[in-house]
Amino acid sequence: MKNREFTPETEHTYDRSSVARWLVSHALRYPLYVVIGILFRGGVVVAAVQVPKLMGSAFDTVAGASAEVRVLLGFALAILGISLLRGVLQLLANYTAEIVALRIERDVRDELYVNLLGKSQTFHGQQRVGDIMARATNDVRQLNVMVNPGLLLLSEWLVNMVVPIIAIGLLSTTLLPIPVLFLILFLVALRGYLRRLTPVAGAMRAQFGKLNANLTEAISGIEVVKSNAQEEQEHVRFRAEAQSYRDLFVKQGKIQALYLPLLMFSFTLALGLAHALFLYSNDSLSIGDVIYFMGLLAMLRFPTFVSIFAFSLVKLGTAGSERILAILNAETEIDENRAGIERRIEGEVEFDNVSFAYQGANALQGISFRAKPGETIAIVGQTGSGKSTLTRLINRIYEVAAGRVLIDGVDVRVWSMESLRSQIATIDQDVFLFSRTLAENIAFGVRRPVSRAEIEAVAKQAQAHDFIMGFKDGYDTIVGERGVTLSGGQRQRIAIARAFLADPRILVLDDSTSAIDSATEDQIQRALRNILHGRTTFLITHRLSQIRWADRILVLRGGKLEDQGTHEELMTRSPAYRNIFAHRDERYAAVLPATVVGE
Ligand code: ADP
Ligand code: MG
Q: What burial class does residue 352 get, using C-beta atoms within 10 Å of its C-beta: 0-12 exposed, 13-18 middle, 19+ buried?
């Protein structure tokens, strides 16, 4: 079993060893539909073959001069009846195929989403969101089209190709050479066609992903684009990407235009007629046989024509499926350890000689410290010194490269991830809010149903109630897109309310008030004081007012723990620590000595 960070309650497993096996394992979830669909389709062709046969017999009857109107009417009615039957079977066959295609599409979406949720932060950090979105939407859609009408047309192609040729063989083996020769040349031409199409199909899917990724980046980075007046450059880039996508379409069109089998079919028809008439003149065939034979031969037009679309759709679908499978099969390094320890965290956190690197670049080296339950630990250091990285090792967003992170004396890798993460909350620099109501955003981290009264209570504790009530829809106000936008300080307080509700044992506050104006600062300070009470807290901040709350301060420098101690200790012995405050604005410089004395 592969590593993963999330397993849903119910899950179906598929064979992901190859695209074909994967698709079959998806289709086989609905064996009844598949079997019934094949039967219907077989019925359609068998019925179709009867039409030229009846026509041939009708001609023989006429030629035999014993033609009674009643008999001929019988033929006509039989042809009508068979055509009707064929129509009904066709409808049912298409219907079952569409059901299977839609279910596979749904299942693949589900499989992919679950899989993405279970992938590590490292994996997601290396992906372009737009490309993932293209795979999750467009490539999955392509997969549906591959099943219906793609595979349907392919099966149609197969039976419609084979059944008439068998029927010709049954009529007279002397008629076989020309259709069989056609079949062989067809297959040779098809192979060449697919060989030319395969790279183009793959490139098309990849280019679409790239196009989408660039678009996503330009839109989510729209503020940067605008403030740097880069609209024109972005447009040029987009046009270039769109152009290459278009070029691939043209290339595909050219390959399709050079599809030889259609031409070969016309020759076959002419040669077949000459051959049959020759046999007729030899008295080896009746005129009815000639009609029947030509009817069967004409039936090959449909599969020949349909094969272009069938194989193109299947090719594009396979190219898309390969992209989906590549994600599904991508290894992820962190495992949720479902069988791991599940219990209430007391809150002791220990780093034991911990090192960590992002893709080779060292971020933390030989970090050791210990936080007792309920302590507040401030982490300071220049930008890029590894403060955020350190906190991400606690809830296993990333895994240590060497050393151990222990919680209550137990390695975080031994804890069940679910238990671990549900008891550790992080309030980040940028608080991400979903496009849902404020109430839903506050209740985000909790699994049990939460009453409105509870939400209001935590919002009050987080000093968020008043501004929330200031919105027309109050707690039902929708955030983002169709709703309101919140300021940095408001977002912080929503995140704090969320944390109150989740009631974590360990709390990480990452630069949590840096974005806040002084008008709301007091409120935030009060909210933060409330929340860190009774929990082990890691506080990444340079605000003296907050550093004062800390029992201990860790000073990071270039990924190493330079020193640790109380504010007073560090002020006297750590130049690096003093340095952090030396360059800060006057407000802090002025506050500094007073604070030290005052506390
Ligand atoms: P801080 O929070 O102290 O500003 P970080 O922990 O964010 O520092 O970063 C520490 C180092 O790791 C920096 O050199 C940074 O460039 C690097 N880093 C941070 N995040 C990533 C990431 N996702 N991938 C690669 N390198 C990263
Ligand atoms: Mg940081």
A: middle
